[in-house]
Amino acid sequence: MRKVSDVPLGVLLSGGIDSSTVLALLQQESSRAVRSFSIGFPESGLDEAPDARKIAAHIGSDHTELYMAPDDIIELIPSLTRLSDQPQSDPSYVSNHVAYRLSGQSVTVTLAGDGGDELFAGYHRHRWLPRVCRQLGWVPVGIRKQGARALTAVPPATWDKVFGIIEPAVPPRLRERTPGAKLHRFARWMACASNEEMYRVLSTRWEPDDRLVVGCAPGQPPTDFAFVPLNGDFNILERMLAHELVTSFLHTQLKKVDRASMAVSVEARTPFMDYRVVEFAFTLPPDLKVRGETGKYILRRVLHRYVPEALYQRPKMGFHLPLSTWLRGPLREWAEDLLDPSSIRQEGLLDPDPIRVKWQEHLSGRRDRVDHLWPVLMFRSWLKHHGPGVSTTLDDRRLLGVH
Questions:
Q1: Residue 293 burial by Cβ neighbours in a 10 Å radius (0-12, 13-18, 19+)
Q2: Please, which residues have CB within 8 angstroms of residue 298's CB and are 6 or more apart in sequence?
């Protein structure tokens, strides 16, 4: 149904499971080579363009790719903030816009793989949070809280040194770049009294004690977060997927797709969001979505019919920018201007102090704080280009990852 069109049609191909499945199924139903489009990043560990190229060659699509440089992003961001009536905090908004612009040079309708992760459990949290909940669920909350206090009594830097001593004995796949910070985060999960609270901690970038938003008291409890109500008995994975589908996916992901595509007059179609696919996905037992350490199990089995596993079996990336590196290099001057403490303080919306701490940690290389900083940068860029007179509130704190 999604291939019916009176105008040229193509597919955005990141090289991941979702978009590759869309392309494979579409090509199977087409008598001519389907147009596919990818973007890449030179000198980046996030460059999926070569992988997408191999998959396109195997499927037999007519493939086009474009490489983006930091200067391209700097020029593009101001125009994107002017195109949006609300700030867009998802980093892939920028790369998606470029990808749709690339496809728009050849086709008018473009299919994408959005929704596969939310329906079939494609994120890391879908694999290990249910496992953590099962493993910690039998331990009384009081004992868990005592253990959490013991773990957080040792500063993250000290934990880093401890793990550095034992690192040679740890398998490479289990080594962490910032073990101390992750251990403190695990301690916060241990102290949670319910699965819902544990999930909220996981999905929040900024800590309540960071006091990012002016007027928020330290440790202020969340007022805008609760799992969507479901009829029947569902486990934690199913509740997570349902919640994400009707909240973050609806309010962030689909809006991002709509704005990124329509800004360049391209009609974006998301086959995974057909209501029949959604209904079918929620009839599946959890072990057809997550099996052991493998997410999107059933979707992988479908793709395996058309593409060898070796071509798509790799860490998840998508159209993500190498922002961590760029913010320390070519984007640093741009970011410094937007993160200027005096300007932030004058607006009276955000507290510049915790922002400055995260920025210095990121610049030093001690921590990767791009998930904290990018929403702030997009928010301030949007404010800057819409003028100081714009009516602004922070009632919806999901933009900044603050619940």
A1: exposed
A2: 120, 284, 288, 289
**Average pLDDT value over all residues in the chain:** 85
HSE-CB of 398 using CA atoms within 13 angstroms: 18
Residue 65 dihedral angles phi and psi, to the nearest 5°: -135, 155
As a whole number of Å, the end-to-end CA separation of the chain is 39
Sorted by sequence, the CB contacts under 8 Å of residue 35 that are 6+ apart come out as 8, 9, 10, 11, 61, 62, 63, 64, 103, 106, 107
Q: What mean pLDDT is predicted for residues 254-272?
A: 94
User: How far apart are the C-alpha atoms of 159 and 163, rounded to whole Å?
Assistant: 6
> Do you know the residue count of the chain?
403
Say if residues 199 and 242 touch (Cβ distance below 8 Å). Answer: no
Token output for 211? 């006091």
At 285, the pLDDT band (50, 70, 90 cuts) reads very high
DSSP state string for 205-218: SS-GGG--BTTPPT
pTM of the model: 0.84
Instruction: Domain ranges for the chain, please list them.
Output: 9-121+240-312, 125-213, 323-400
CATH for 9-121+240-312, options being 1.20.210.10, 3.40.50.620, 3.40.640.10, 3.40.50.1000? 3.40.50.620
